[in-house]
């Protein structure tokens, strides 16, 4: 179940979206439905969750999208350029971090 409605966001359909703590992909798939021509990046600390997300994505391959990438990493040191994303999703992640303010400072750069 999604924790928010992507369709209520006023963004162009041609957007670059980062999902921090993507898990098995529920928000990536919600974003893909709302922004079908988007470029999607899912980032998670858990390789098993990323593997499941990539496996689940096969069911959505026929939908139009620019590209997708799944990255093993964490929110304290994001491997991206500053101001690279139009939308960053970080749902149900911060409460699991010991130093969530450090993560928020890092996320703010993007």
Give me some keywords for this one.
110 residues, alpha/beta, Rossmann fold, four-stranded parallel β-sheet
Overall description:
The protein has one domain: Vaccinia Virus protein VP39 (Rossmann fold). Helix content is 26%, strand content 18%. A 4-stranded parallel β-sheet has the order 3-2-1-4, with helices on one face. The two termini are 26 Å apart. The model has no long low-confidence stretch (mean pLDDT 77).
Structure summarized in a few sentences:
The protein is an alpha/beta fold.
Number of helical regions: 3
Strand segment count = 4
What's the overall average pLDDT, rounded? Answer: 77
Strand content: 15-25%
How far is the first residue's CA from the last residue's CA?
26 Å
Extract low-pLDDT stretches: none
Secondary structural class = alpha/beta
Structural shape? globular
- CATH fold field value: Rossmann fold
């Amino acid at each position: 179940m999604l924790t928010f409605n992507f369709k209520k966001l006023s963004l162009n359909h041609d957007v670059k979206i980062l999902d921090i703590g993507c898990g098995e992909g529920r928000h990536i798939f919600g974003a893909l439905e709302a922004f079908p021509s988007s470029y999607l990046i899912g980032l998670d600390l858990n390789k098993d969750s990323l593997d499941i997300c990539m496996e689940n994505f096969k069911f959505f391959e026929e939908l139009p999208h620019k590209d997708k990438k799944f990255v093993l990493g964490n929110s304290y040191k994001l491997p991206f350029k500053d101001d690279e994303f139009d939308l960053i999703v970080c749902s149900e992640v911060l409460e699991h971090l010991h130093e969530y303010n450090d993560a928020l400072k890092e996320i703010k750069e993007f």
